[in-house]
Design goal:
Blueprint lengths: L13 H13 L19 E5 L5 E2 L5 E5 L5 H7 E3 L4 E6 L4 E6 L6 E8 L12 E8 L1
Parallel strand pairs: 2-8
Antiparallel strand pairs: 1-3, 3-6, 4-7, 5-6, 7-8
């Protein structure tokens, strides 16, 4: 057929094609901020509590939870409780410590501190719940 275009393909040497593929895949992988930044995707976790599980404490015990990273104070207030006891939570960002303050001194008996659904500042929610049972003497 007259006037029909003819397509011709040039074949690159195997080494050239591989080098081109590697250079395309390497773009953005040089360690600087030009690549994709996923941000903080790690949920917070509890490093320590006071009292610890199984401890005996006095009626005026200070209940604290230390996190591995800064958390949202509102989610700490909502997510930390002493089961069956009214109280409030205060969060100290410099120490990453939340403290539960009961409204009244604790009566002798068994108690469970519950820590759940606390978010870090990036919005990641802690995985699972942490419960700490202790006894007031």
């Amino acid at each position: 057929m007259a006037g029909s275009p003819v397509r011709r393909w040039a074949r690159a040497a195997p080494g050239v094609a591989l080098a081109a593929l590697i250079s395309v895949l390497h773009v953005g992988c040089d360690g600087d901020s030009d690549g994709v930044d996923l941000g903080d995707v790690t949920p917070p976790s509890v490093l320590a509590t006071s009292p610890m599980a199984g401890d005996e404490a006095g009626p005026d015990v200070r209940l604290t939870v230390v996190f591995d990273e800064d958390v949202d104070s509102g989610s700490a207030a909502d997510g930390i409780s002493l089961i069956g006891v009214a109280g409030s939570v205060a969060y100290d960002a410099p120490t990453r410590t939340a403290a539960f303050e009961p409204d009244e001194p604790l009566d002798p008996g068994a108690y469970t501190l519950s820590i759940r659904s606390v978010r870090d500042l990036a919005g990641n929610v802690m995985v699972g719940a942490v419960t700490v049972s202790f006894v007031v003497r």
